[in-house]
Amino acid sequence: MKPEVGSQKSEISPQTSDLKPQIQYDDFAKLDLRVGTILSVEKVEKADKLLKLEVDLGFEKRIIVSGIALHFKPEDLIGKQVVIVANLAPRKLKGVESNGMILSAEDENGKLYLINPEEIINPGAGIS
């Protein structure tokens, strides 16, 4: 018999046991989460897992390098909206500077799902 949607298991699930340490609200408030629209995508040279995405945040366009190449085809991502961490310090990955992080969720089978708004909204909209 299949469990009902929303039913809870009595044992601790792997997701619960992997919780990170508790933080204060002020720690969370430091994150600048924004909606961005993906304008272009290309594979990063010499990297099987990395994609270089140009993301429109409304007030600027920026490059974000993300390790999602094994899960998404570049052409399928163009035009999609995603939630990004906009104030993450820049970091070079395979020689390409990444200016943010795209948020995704991973299911128990390792499949990734991009976090995005239910409906199209203006790029740069803040997440609260």
Could you write a compact summary of the structure shown?
By secondary structure, the protein is mainly beta. It has helices at residues 14-17, 25-29, 74-77, and strands at residues 33-43, 51-56, 61-66, 81-85, 91-93, 96-98, 101-102, 104-106, 112-114.
Task: Please provide a written account of the structure.
The protein has 128 residues and is mainly beta. The chain has a domain at 31-114: OB fold (Dihydrolipoamide Acetyltransferase, E2P), CATH 2.40.50.140. It has 3 helices and 9 strands, in the order ααβββαββββββ.
The tally of beta strands, per DSSP, is: 9
By CATH's scheme, which homologous superfamily of the domain at 31-114 applies? Nucleic acid-binding proteins
Biggest beta sheet attributes: 5 strands, antiparallel
**Span from first to last CA?**
38 Å
In CATH's first tier, which class of the domain at 31-114 applies?
Mainly Beta
| CATH topology-level name of the domain at 31-114 | OB fold (Dihydrolipoamide Acetyltransferase, E2P)
Strand order, largest beta sheet: 3-2-1-4-7
Low-pLDDT ranges: none
- What is the average per-residue confidence, as pLDDT, rounded to a whole number? 90
Percent of residues in β-strands? 25-35%
**Percent helix range:** 10-25%
Provide the gyration radius in Å.
17 Å
**CATH architecture type of the domain at 31-114:** Beta Barrel
The helix/strand class is mainly beta
